[in-house]
């Protein structure tokens, strides 16, 4: 069984690193993208099991990326964790996210979540 | 229709008034003449009046009507002064010819001349009555000399002329007082208009200032919201990044840590958490001041609230070698409605406050049913107590129990202020009972059924 793959779309470099390390510790292979437009392109090439998605992104916002993922049958099994500091923004999303994480997000909690996801579908 | 007929070409209010009056008199006289003409015609056709009388009367009436029409036109288009004099002279002439000469000079017809004298003071100028009186005097003198032999010696009918002058004097007096009263009224009116205009202008200015002030307030409000979001994002993001990296190190993702490294890391995390809590307090305070903080009302388990509180505070309490006793009375419903996160915040703030001032002993938290509509939480400590003189101010923002101890007890002094505002937002209240040397007990009262305002139902 190959390692699961997580795509982290977050423009705050530090937060992206923490997310990435938490997911790695939870058994994921990770890739970080800091820009909404680049994420838009990249989502056409990869098959992530999990996407950690920030909403405030340069060029293309998280809401649009979530719509793109939900409209793409290729990414049917992809789980999207929306990470935001603003609970109101999370409520105004067009498409459904699998999980809303309210910032600040604890490393420990995210790692536990990743461990659970990593083993749940083996 | 009548108003249109009475209109004259003038801008002077006195002139307009006189000329309108003259118009009314002209119209009235014309109507009278017209009725007389009809009466004479009927009398002629019925056979009461002989043809030559009818012809004479009809021609006189028609010529008077024509003169009146001419005067009317002059008055409307050109001059009230000329028209007025023509009318007065016409009247005088008509009265002079209306009767037997002796009657005109000495008899009953005399009173007729008072009519033009009075009228001239009203429709021309007050002093015009004297001129008309003189004209009338001349007219009757001429009539007397031409027609009456006993006046032929050249002595005028003095008593009659004196009568005319008396009437003229009375007319002058009354017309003058009428005119000056009217002028006073007009001046007062103009003053009133000016005052109204001034007040309207002032009101408009005040209005504009109010609108400006309102716009400035809105701008300030926008700035405040913007400031809040900047603080929220720019302070909290790095603080949570520090927390995340520290947790990462603590989880030994980057290799094992020595005992000393672990200790330093714990200090980093504790300090970061404190900063984060302060920033959150400031944000809550600002949001509450702006009325932007709303509650999320949902059903929750009291046991969950108690467990959350214990897991958050237990370590801190025990690290100070104090005890934390929790007692839940069975009379409190197991499932409550309210904002669990904010209730948790109230508990944490109260326990933190107790913790700050308590050096030995500990903290007891008691959940109980207060009455039919309220449940309550007591947070009691064995600290030094609160002096009565500062007890009233401890719920104000940025207050510390004792200003001399500010350096020792860190924080903004927002904890209790937030507790009070949250409790109020929930429709409840908070109070304190304290005895110096024996500790303090804070009591939060919360309604079992939360009020519907200020809350977003979940």
Question: Would you give an account of this structure?
Answer:
Chain A is an alpha/beta fold. Chain A is 40% helix and 22% strand. Chain A is built from 5 helices and 5 strands, in the order βαβαβαβαβα. Chain A has helices at 13-25, 36-42, 62-71, 87-91, 107-120, and strands at residues 4-9, 28-33, 50-54, 79-84, 99-102. In chain A, strands 2-1-3-4-5 form a 5-stranded parallel β-sheet, with helices on both faces. In chain A, helix 1 packs across helix 5 (107-120). Chain A is globular. Chain B is an alpha/beta fold and 458 residues long. Chain B is built from 13 helices and 8 strands. In chain B, a hairpin with a 3-residue loop joins strand 6 and strand 7. The longest helix of chain B has 93 residues, at 158-250. The radius of gyration of chain B is 52 Å and the shape is rod-shaped. Mean pLDDT of chain B is 83; it is low at 403-409 and 454-458. The interface between A and B is medium-sized, with 17 and 16 residues.
């Amino acid at each position: 069984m190959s390692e699961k793959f997580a795509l982290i779309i977050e423009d705050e470099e530090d937060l992206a690193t923490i997310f990435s390390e938490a997911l790695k510790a939870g058994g994921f292979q990770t890739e970080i993208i800091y820009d909404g437009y680049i994420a838009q392109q990249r989502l056409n090439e990869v098959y992530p099991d999990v996407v950690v998605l920030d909403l405030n992104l340069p060029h293309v916002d998280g809401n649009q990326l979530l719509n793109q993922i939900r409209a793409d049958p290729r990414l049917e099994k992809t789980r999207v964790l929306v990470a935001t500091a603003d609970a109101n923004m999370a409520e105004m999303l067009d498409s459904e996210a699998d999980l809303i994480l309210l910032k600040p997000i604890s490393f420990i909690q995210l790692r536990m979540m990743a461990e659970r996801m990593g083993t749940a579908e083996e | 229709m009548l108003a249109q007929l009475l209109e004259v070409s003038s801008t002077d209010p006195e002139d307009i008034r006189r000329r309108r009056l003259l118009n009314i008199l002209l119209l009235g006289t014309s109507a009278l003449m017209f009725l007389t003409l009809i009466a004479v015609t009927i009398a002629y056709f019925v056979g009461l009046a002989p043809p030559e009388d009818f012809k004479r009367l009809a021609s006189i009436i028609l010529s008077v009507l024509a003169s009146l029409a001419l005067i009317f036109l002059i008055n409307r288009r050109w001059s009230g002064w000329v028209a007025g004099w023509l009318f007065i002279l016409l009247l005088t002439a008509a009265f002079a010819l209306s009767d037997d000469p002796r009657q005109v000079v000495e008899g009953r017809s005399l009173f007729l001349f008072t009519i033009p004298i009075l009228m001239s003071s009203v429709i021309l100028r007050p002093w015009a009555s004297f001129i008309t009186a003189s004209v009338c005097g001349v007219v009757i003198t001429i009539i007397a000399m031409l027609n009456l032999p006993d006046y032929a010696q050249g002595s005028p009918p003095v008593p009659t002329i004196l009568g005319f002058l008396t009437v003229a004097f009375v007319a002058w007096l009354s017309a003058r007082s009428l005119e000056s009263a009217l002028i006073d009224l007009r001046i007062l009116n103009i003053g009133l208009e000016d005052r109204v205009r001034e007040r309207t202008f002032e009101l408009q200015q005040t209005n504009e200032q109010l609108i400006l002030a309102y716009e400035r307030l809105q701008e300030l409000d926008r700035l405040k919201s913007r400031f809040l979001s900047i603080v929220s994002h720019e302070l909290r993001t790095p603080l949570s990044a520090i927390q995340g990296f520290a947790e990462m190190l603590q989880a030994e993702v980057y290799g094992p840590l020595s005992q000393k490294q672990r200790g330093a890391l714990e200090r980093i995390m504790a300090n970061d958490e404190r900063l984060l809590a302060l920033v959150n307090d400031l944000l809550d305070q600002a949001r509450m001041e702006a009325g932007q903080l709303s509650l999320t009302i949902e059903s929750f388990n009291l046991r969950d609230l108690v467990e959350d509180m214990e897991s958050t505070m237990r370590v801190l309490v025990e690290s100070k070698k104090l005890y934390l006793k929790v007692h839940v009375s069975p009379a409190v419903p197991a499932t409550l409605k309210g904002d669990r996160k904010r209730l948790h915040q109230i508990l944490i703030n109260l326990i933190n406050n107790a913790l700050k001032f308590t050096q030995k002993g500990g903290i007891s938290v008691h959940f109980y049913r207060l009455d039919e509509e309220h449940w309550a939480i007591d947070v009691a400590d064995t600290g030094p107590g609160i002096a009565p003189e500062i007890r009233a101010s401890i719920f104000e923002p940025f207050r510390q129990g004792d200003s001399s101890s500010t350096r020792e007890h860190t924080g903004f002094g927002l904890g209790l202020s937030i507790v009070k505002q949250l409790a109020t937002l929930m429709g409840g209240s908070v109070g304190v009972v304290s005895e110096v040397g024996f500790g303090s007990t804070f009591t939060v009262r919360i309604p079992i059924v939360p009020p519907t305002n200020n809350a977003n139902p979940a």
